[in-house]
């Protein structure tokens, strides 16, 4: 992507850690300028300073909680008011909550929908017109392999990522002939703090190796060059996806239900 780097700006949500931080570093390394968006201003400032020193990238920090839907337009106006044109949007912010559906806190689940779905749709809707006008744009929506099937005890998260996958593929088709590329990125188990934050413990029978955030980003950038839309990162995640397509959906759901019950998520 070096040929596209001249004065290009990438906006990365959830940029304070994990996949979002790795995306921000990769863009800066490739010569892009980076807008870092997350709730933790202190963390963002440290990352921004590091990217400036190591890669001479321009950075812009936006501290915002994407569970507050009245902030989406304010974020857009702040960035535009700074004279920045967003060439790439990485909708990475998101979180999960695992457990018995009626025992999980309702407000927390609604916050998850706001961050995982509403913020992604809103920011895409706000920044996409500018990309269309300049006939160039890249949007990376971070979905998950969890979105390919219903997941008992992880119902809200899996459903939110199913939405992201369907939405991304649909909008990608709408704008593919207008210079816009939209990536539906579906990582599997990744070495980030996501699992701990969601209360998720790795199943002892799941032998698939976790990818590093950097490995996920490497696969994404290769997919961009190949003009792919949906990217399932990791050989074993792709293998598991293919196997799941060969058996009835109801069977997969029952296997997941039994597995999660053994781990105590039904309590």
Verbal overview:
- The chain is an alpha/beta fold.
- It has a single domain, classed as Rossmann fold (3-Layer(aba) Sandwich).
- It has 9 helices and 7 strands, in the order βαβαβαβαβαβααβαα.
- The protein has helices spanning 18-29, 41-55, 72-81, 106-134, 155-175, 194-198, 213-225, 235-244, 249-262; strands at residues 9-13, 33-38, 59-63, 88-91, 137-142, 180-186, 230-232.
- Helix 4 links the parallel strand 4 (88-91) and strand 5.
- The longest helix has 29 residues, at 106-134.
- The termini are far apart.
- The model has no long low-confidence stretch (mean pLDDT 91).
- CATH homologous superfamily caption: NAD(P)-binding Rossmann-like Domain
Strand order of the largest sheet: 3-2-1-4-5-6-7
Q: What general form does the structure show?
A: globular
Radius of gyration: 18 Å
In DSSP terms (H or I, runs of 4 or more residues), the helix count works out at 9
Q: Helix coverage percent of residues? A: 40-55%
Mean pLDDT: 91
CATH topology grouping: Rossmann fold
Q: Give the total of beta strands.
A: 7
Distance between the termini: 48 Å
């Amino acid at each position: 992507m070096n040929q596209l780097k001249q004065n290009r700006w990438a906006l990365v949500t959830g940029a304070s850690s994990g996949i979002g931080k790795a995306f921000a570093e990769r863009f800066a390394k490739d010569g892009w300028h980076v807008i870092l968006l997350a709730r933790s201003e202190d963390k963002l400032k440290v990352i921004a300073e590091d990217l400036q020193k190591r890669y001479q990238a321009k950075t812009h920090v936006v501290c915002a909680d994407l569970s507050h839907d009245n902030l989406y337009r304010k974020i857009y106006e702040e960035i535009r008011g700074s004279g920045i044109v967003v060439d790439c949007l990485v909708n990475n912010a998101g979180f999960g909550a695992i457990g018995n559906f009626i025992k999980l806190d309702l407000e927390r689940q609604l916050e998850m929908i706001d961050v995982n779905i509403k913020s992604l749709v809103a920011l895409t809707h706000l920044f996409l017109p500018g990309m269309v006008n300049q006939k160039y744009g890249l949007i990376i929506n971070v979905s998950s392999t969890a979105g390919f099937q219903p997941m008992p005890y992880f119902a809200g998260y899996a459903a939110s990522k199913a939405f992201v996958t369907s939405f991304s593929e649909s909008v990608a088709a709408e704008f593919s002939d207008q210079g816009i590329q939209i990536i539906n990125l579906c990582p599997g188990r990744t070495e980030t703090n996501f699992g701990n934050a969601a209360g998720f413990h790795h199943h002892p029978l799941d032998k698939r190796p976790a990818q590093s955030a950097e490995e996920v980003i490497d696969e994404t950038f290769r997919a961009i060059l190949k003009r792919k839309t949906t990217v399932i990162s990791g050989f074993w995640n792709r293998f598991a996806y293919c196997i799941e397509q060969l058996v009835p959906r109801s069977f997969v759901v029952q296997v997941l239900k039994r597995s999660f019950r053994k781990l105590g998520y039904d309590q």
